Amino acid sequence: MGLTRQIEALLFLSPDPVTADALAEATDAEPEEVQQTLAALRDGYDAEERGLVLRELAGGWVLSSHPEADEAARRLLSRPRTPPLSAAQAETLAIVAYLQPVSRPEIARIRGVNAESATQTLLERGVIEEAGRSQFGATLYRSTDLFLALFGLRSLEDLPDPSAFDPSPEVAAELKERLLAAGDARLPDSDAPTP
Amino acid sequence: MGLTRQIEALLFLSPDPVTADALAEATDAEPEEVQQTLAALRDGYDAEERGLVLRELAGGWVLSSHPEADEAARRLLSRPRTPPLSAAQAETLAIVAYLQPVSRPEIARIRGVNAESATQTLLERGVIEEAGRSQFGATLYRSTDLFLALFGLRSLEDLPDPSAFDPSPEVAAELKERLLAAGDARLPDSDAPTP
Amino acid sequence: MATRHIRASPLRLVDLELDLEVFAGPFDLLLTLILREEIDLLEVDLAEIVVSYIDYLEAKGELDLELATEFLVLIAALLELKSRLMLPAQENIDELLELDPGEAAQELLERLLDAHRYRGAAEHLSGLLAEQSGYRFRSAPLPEHIRKATVPRTDAVYDPARLGKALGSLLTLPEEVEVGHLPQVKISVAERLAHVRTLLKRGSFNFEEAIPRADRVTVAVTVFALLELYKQGELVWDQTEPFGEITVRRCESRTSAWA
User: Fold this and answer.
1) Which residues of A touch C4 (CB under 8 A)?
2) Which of C2, C151, C164 sits opposite A146 (nearest CB)?
């Protein structure tokens, strides 16, 4: 069972620098042996013109890709991930897009259910971002430029007029107030009569 | 500027399986050349007893660590082994994998018990995802590329035909006989119905 | 505050707090969530709700007739809806109910074979997962210099109309509980109580007389009224054999109900 194999696998799996001692402990090998293996791996990558570079930084040893591949990597990987939006994600994104900046408690109040995981996913995909704090201390969210690009919009002005999709156009009130009122009607609280 | 170097670097950086065509486009190389390079890398890792394994999974090529390093990886990363699926999760996943897109009521009908928490866990583990709505409005589910990768499959075609798991004709015949006998016992004659 | 459309409703089931496996909160919130498909009706144990309701009655010590009627109607609607969801396809219900025992067994057999098939597939998948668990994938964020956002090169992949529609659906006020698929129910426990008391003036009557050509909800509400009057000690009933006639008799005094 090769030490080189194990060390290379461990370096591959560790996103952060890892010390030779930690590698020695994990592989149950002598620290000197591990040091030698690391040096051999590093020199091997270099001599064989591999795509990997092994470096010793302050905190330990870390694998990275060879800089020569950066341009190709950007071409391959810097595209945003765009899987289909779930219903919860579309609702949350619509609320942020139309009402920004808007806090998560408000999003939850409008949707009638909590918006935790949808908000998280939208943040990870880079279509919304944090935009400071509300006066009550809740994190506020707004949409990003990536959001505009993914929806083919030049600016937020280009968002479709919600009245086109509005089931109750006769109610004349601010969009936000109406959304909150509809949300409240879905989630009865103690002092409001139930619909 | 070596193609092997670039391809290895790109594979190292890609979190998901990546197709040979995408690699060819990113490196501005011929697809055949990329295919040859990938095969050579795979065979090289194998022959040189490296810590990396290159495999074709989920419709693309992806690097992973060698299973021989699994124990050391668990010690170093204090990450448990991939948690196994519960029976309910495995059944739900099997139904989604074979019948996708499929709704939760359909899953519940086949399993005979509800599928709420199993579905939720599978969604959280990222092996299934939402896939629109059925004509009756129920959410539909399908399997993800992560499912294929984690289960070592190149595509859904790699799954065995589900009839492979059918009971033998003898067992099926016996089941049927017992069912008929039970039906007869329940209805001895027409004028004495039992509630 | 914007104009609020609060419809008058006789419902006051807010008081009925539920603590179910899939839901904790007031009954009518559960209804709303079911109608919005935030909760799958198949996951809800309706028997548990009935038990909660009975506990609630017990605790309150009095029967709120309006509430009881509403509850019966709603739980009946939920039961019907759930039974429809559990059957393979709506149009097949009648066919299914008319299957002879052989056909029913065949149908059941198909389902058992299906279940067997996917249990086998499940074992196969579990085996694959265990076998593959030694191959670990790297999970690390892309280095900053490669990740640099490339917004200008991004193609539009989503339709903005999706956002408008999502917002429009959020503006919708929740629907009232749909019980339209049930025969129009005008029956209440109060009305049935009065009816039974009128019949009792004769001294005794046959239960069938109390429910001529009545639908099932009426029969159920009438039984409910009988139970209530039995509890109050106003009547007793006899049935000599299963499915036989039920004779309801007036009690002359409260104590005679226990005689």
Assistant:
1) 181, 184-185
2) C151
pLDDT in tens, A44-103: 999 998 999 999 987 799 999 999 999 999 888 877 777 778 888 899 999 999 999 999
**CATH 1.10.10.580 describes domain C189-258:** yes
C122 CB burial (10 A radius; 0-12, 13-18, 19+): buried
Question: Contacts of residue C7 in chain A, CB cutoff 8 Å?
Answer: 195
Chain segment C85-125, per-residue pLDDT in tens: 666 554 455 555 555 556 655 666 777 778 788 889 999 99
ipTM associated with this complex? 0.70
Q: d(Cα A142, Cα A128) in Å, to the nearest integer?
A: 6
Task: For domain B3-74, say whether CATH 1.10.10.10 is its number.
Answer: yes
The class level of CATH for A89-189 reads mainly alpha
Exposed, middle or buried, C145 (CB in 10 Å: 0-12/13-18/19+)? exposed
Whole-prediction pTM: 0.57
Residue position matching structure tokens 């979190």: B15
* The pLDDT value given to residue C255: 47
Shortest alpha-carbon distance between residue C30 and chain B (Å):
16
- Domain range annotation of chain A: 3-74, 89-189
Q: Is B165 on the interface with C (CB under 8 A)?
A: yes
Q: Do B72 and A27 touch (CB under 8 A)?
A: yes
